[in-house]
Design brief:
Number of domains of chain A: 2
Largest interface: A-E, 47 and 43 residues
Number of helices of chain A: 11
Oligomer: homopentamer
GO molecular function (chains A, B, C, D, E): cobalt ion binding; cobalt ion transmembrane transporter activity; magnesium ion binding; magnesium ion transmembrane transporter activity
CATH class of the largest domain in chain A: Alpha Beta
CATH architecture of the largest domain in chain A: 2-Layer Sandwich
Catalytic activity (chains A, B, C, D, E): Mg(2+)(in) = Mg(2+)(out)
Subcellular location (chains A, B, C, D, E): Cell membrane; Membrane
Family (chains A, B, C, D, E): Belongs to the CorA metal ion transporter (MIT) (TC 1.A.35) family.
Protein name (chains A, B, C, D, E): Magnesium transport protein CorA
Shape of chain A: rod-shaped
Strand content of chain A: 15-25%
Largest sheet of chain A: 7 strands, mixed
Order of helices and strands of chain A: HEEHEHHEEEEHHHHHHH
Helix content of chain A: 55-70%
Chain lengths: 333, 333, 333, 333, 333
């Protein structure tokens, strides 16, 4: 792994309308020269939070508030946006799943942008910004032309797009679960519904504050946030609402599925009970009658009758037939 | 099918107070000349989204934002309204059902209007705007006289009117379902309640944002939206609220029906249990007594008694009668 | 019936501080002369909506918006208030019950008022405004002195007062239902709770928008709505809230009653099960023992014992006594 | 009882910083002289609403709006605050319990205050304002120094303080109920939970609008309500919120208790079922085996075997032992 | 214990940028001299509320409103913030747990701050402010440099940080409870879920108003609250929201766990019922057949057949096999 090198090496993209340069720098001090060139913007990606010393240096160069650095390091920080005079700070959560919906991971991505720089802090080195790098290479890309707020929007957009993938996976899983419950296969366990609900709560927990961030962004009057780029932010905002509505739909579906499961249990129990009742109700009285003629009283006139045994069989048959008719009428089988 | 021709041929209605002309054009460039004549308004209907090239050309002629074209093409776009300096963009969902409430289809209809043009984008060629065409032919119609915002309102109104049809169908289906549950016919399956709930969620999902769109429209201060036409928009807005309230009513009804179904299951189980208990409680003790006198002990004085057998029958009768009285008093049958 | 005459004859009350005249006019054109006399106000009641021609004429005389006429004719219109420059339009729902709470009827009453006129449109001829007529005859009545907005308020007030009657009826019905559930009489069926809930939803559906109308009225700045009369509107507004709170209370009560019903079913089932279990658990082992000594093995020493039979009875008694003690301790009977 | 005298005799407290005089007047007209002395304030307590004539006179002297008198007389009036140019009108509900929480009574107390007078209307003569009288006698009391709004605040405060007593009683009752459910004593009946819920709804119904009144008071800009006294109103406002939160807590607790009760019913039923199943599953097969050897076939070789009977006992023992092991493993007893 | 001395001895920290002095004073009058030195700030900690005389003196020195002293003494006061011209008063609740989550204690901490002083009132002497003392000793600490509002923020922050500890403990307990339910160990009792819910409600009850306080603080325009320190308050505010969201998540989890528990009870009951039904359904008919041939009729031809007994065994075997196949198909075991 080149994790070690990636800690000490920073990837810096310096760009302008007709300019793009990628540099790998090892000394954070070099960033001072980038900051000075106001006609160019640059993006620094810090791929992991392990090198606290580096973070300290970066924080000093860009004049980042100590509480912000604290928030960046606290990877269970709730997503939020905070405005300072010279820069804006955004915490977001990236969701990704390894294989199945059960292994959803949340990772914190923090963003700081000023008038000519964007800094992104990843929790662990991931390739989430590959799409961004590709778009940046395109000289006609809006990422080069529009301000740092557009650039930050593009980073958030690429994060939010991943939520759709997760939601899609989740929808499939729930639909599959629903099919199994309706088909009444025993393979579906109650715990799986319970686990889906838990996962859902976790996803919602990450998504909700992102909607809030974008809502605050839209209403912000900070000079770094330009009116003309708001159409783009509205777009991600709509996406975040769409995802939340999708999650809410799934929540209701799961709650209905749990209810459906419960009702099916009751239906099954009813069926079991009916079987027991039908069999018991038919045979317990018959057994009683056969018991009567198993008694050893000396004086039992029926026992001597020639057709006694036949008659008893007749009684048995009539009783069985009667019971069957009765249960048929009650719709019990 | 004339789908192919419909892709390349655009239906254009040019109209004014005392003028109506329908043209079929094949080259989108011809639209430039329409745009120029500011004293006339025109409506272009694009019946399907398959010809991306055409969309591109139209987008350039009318100066439509790239994100708008993206939203038009993404047919799972959430309904929304977006205002630009020179035009307003609206996404709506049309609902229609083939035969039963189970086969509800949602189709996206996007609308763009400027000072003298209205463009409508359908997902697939459907005859939803036939009513509009008819009204347009009437020289006294408000569609000719009032602005493009009224025209757009009329298009949305004709879409929202279809929701009433769906709601009516849904109400009938739920009422039918309710009747069957109360009459306790076994034909109604739990899955049907579950499916109605699912369909309801889907309809609500489409309707909710339409209410939002109309609410934003009412509050909008965009110059394309004229104060004097707001009475009409208020009307559709009221309709959307009415539909949502109708859906909410159905949601509550379905949730109560599910509860009713559960309770009826319990009542049935109680009945089954009572049958079992009554029969068992009567005959199990009797069987025990008959078992006693079936024992083969050498010394069993009762067996030699002359009226032993008769007495046993007396015991049987008294016990049965006692049980019946007891269960009658307990209201068990 | 004089329905036919009532269609073509309009009842017009012309009034001022010291003046009251009731006229029956047949030609709507006569209303023009009333409109002209600004120093007097007048009230026209249109008792049914069957004569569309009449409505058309009235609408032209009073310059009523076509959408308003549409709303008046659509008797499933949601209650609403709409302000125009020269008049205000209000749709309300009147509720009345024939005998029991099950037969609640909703009827639409639409009101239009301008600076010196009030028009009321009833769905069918009903005597709901008799109280109004009485008050009008009193020369000191505020109805004569205060503006047309007060008059409209008085009409709405007389409609809302009927809601209290309905709520009272409903409370009685629910309380009765509650008594029966707690006393556990079998006569109360689950469907009645279900039906009360349904009725409740229907009443709420009509009441909710009336509260909204009154809330809008209070905030309105329309010149026809006078500040000094707001105390009266606040009063009806408070009433509408009181009714809604009463309905909400009933909704919660009904939901608790349904739960109570369910729990009582479980309690009853527990009781049934206990009876079955007690009887079975006592007699099944006894039957087994009697079965043992009913076997026909040649070598069964107990059978020859002199006190065998007595001992078996002893065993029976000990077992029965033990079981009874056990079940008593478990509180099972 | 001196109820009769109390109807015709009014208790009037006239007070200023260094002055306090209590008068009993019989003719309401005497109040005119009090009204004139602007340098002094006075409080009139009307202890019951039975003398409508008196109310009429008082209403004329203090220029009280007819609707206010109507609200005072309607003892099921929802608590509210209404501002007039020259006075403010407040309706509140006093709650008190005789002995247990089940006998909660609500009584209406209406308050009207102007620049130098406070009038309180009680539904029935109660001693709720004894504390107020005591404080008034203290020459340093704020009640004498601060305005009539403070005096009214003090009256409301003494009413709200009673709510704490009720809440305390209620908490104790619910806690007691909870203990009994957890200890699973049969003495607690389902109806008591149901009744607590009902009582709770009733208390909440009275408390909620009081919070609203105080919230409106805080925001009011009426000249009778002085900014500097708002700290006191904030205090009662906080109290009303605290009481509502306490009620909400109890509501959730009761709803959980009902659920707990239901679950315990299920647990008990499970236990009953297990007993039945264990006994039946053990003895029914044994009875069958004993039945086999009770058959009277002529050719049944086992019956002649010397150790046949012993072997059957062996089979019995093995089967019983096997079953017990099986049920132990299943944790069924 | 030095509780007695701590009552009469007050700990006073006087501090400035380059100054820190800790004094123990016994006479509250000494505080006057501190109040006079406006260039220094000071913090007084009053470790318990037992000495009312002391509180009275302090209240006079700092001109604290009598209602504030009342709130400080009433240790069940709901957390709140109240602004006065010269000072701000904050009530908070400190939560701490002895060992397990069941023993959560809430203790009231009240704070009063003016332009150069901060007074903290503890319910009982606890060491919660040790961290504060440590930070104060650091000459570079912001606590010395920034205003009294920052100091108060720091005190609240140290209190809110304890909530995270409680939340963590709670999460662990719930997770443990969830594991046990899913693994279906009988050790978990229903009461523990019930108790967790109760504890949760209690924690939420304390946390909710703290969020409110911080929200009011953020919006406050009081001169004692400085704009530039708002970043810090935003931070605690975010923390309070995070804690509330964590509690809400736990609430939903517990409610799902209760549902899961109920469903597992049903599943277990189904299993019990199936066992009973399978055994009964197999053996009851067999017992009946054996009963038939135990009858003592003189004429029973089967009994004389040579292979009668064998045939009966055949019938038994066929019936058992048939039943087993049937139940296997029904998935009953």
């Amino acid at each position: 792994m080149n994790n070690i090198s990636s800690h000490s090496t920073l990837e810096v993209y310096s760009f302008a309308d007709n300019h793009l340069q990628k540099n790998l720098i090892t000394a954070p001090e070099e960033l001072h020269s980038y900051l000075g060139k106001k006609e160019r913007k640059f993006w620094v990606n810090i791929p992991s939070l392990t090198d606290e010393n580096l973070l300290q240096q970066v924080s000093e160069i860009f004049d980042i508030h100590p509480l912000v650095i604290e928030d960046i390091l606290n990877t269970s920080q709730r997503p939020k946006i905070e405005e300072f005079d010279h820069q804006i700070f955004v915490v977001t959560k990236m969701l990704y799943s390894k294989n199945t919906i059960r292994e959803i991971q949340a990772e914190q991505v923090s963003l700081v942008f000023g008038d000519n720089y964007i800094i992104s802090f990843q929790e662990t080195p991931q390739d989430i910004f590959d799409g961004i790098r590709l778009r940046l290479e395109n000289p006609k890309s809006k990422m080069r032309k529009l301000g740092t707020d557009y650039f930050t929007y593009a980073l958030i957009d690429s994060i939010v797009d991943e939520y759709y993938v997760i939601l899609e996976l989740f929808n499939d899983a729930v639909e599959n679960c629903e099919d199994q419950i309706i088909k009444n296969t025993n393979s579906i366990s109650l715990e799986s519904i319970h686990n889906y609900r838990k996962t859902l709560r976790k996803i919602k927990h990450s998504t909700w504050p992102i909607r809030e961030i974008l809502s605050l962004w839209r209403k912000s009057e900070h000079p770094l946030i330009k009116r003309k780029n708001l159409t783009y932010v509205n777009d991600v905002y709509e996406h975040s609402i769409e995802i939340l509505e999708g999650l809410e739909l799934q929540r209701e579906t799961l709650s209905n599925l749990a209810e459906l499961y419960m009702t099916q249990l009751s239906i099954k129990q009813n069926e079991v009970m009916k079987t027991l009742t039908v069999i018991s109700t038919i045979f317990i009285p018959l057994t009683f009658i056969s018991g009567i003629y198993g008694m050893n009283f000396e004086v039992m006139p029926e026992l001597q009758w020639k057709y006694g045994y036949l008659m008893v069989w007749l009684v048995f048959s009539v009783m069985i037939a009667g019971m069957i008719v009765y249960f048929k009428k009650k719709n019990w089988f």
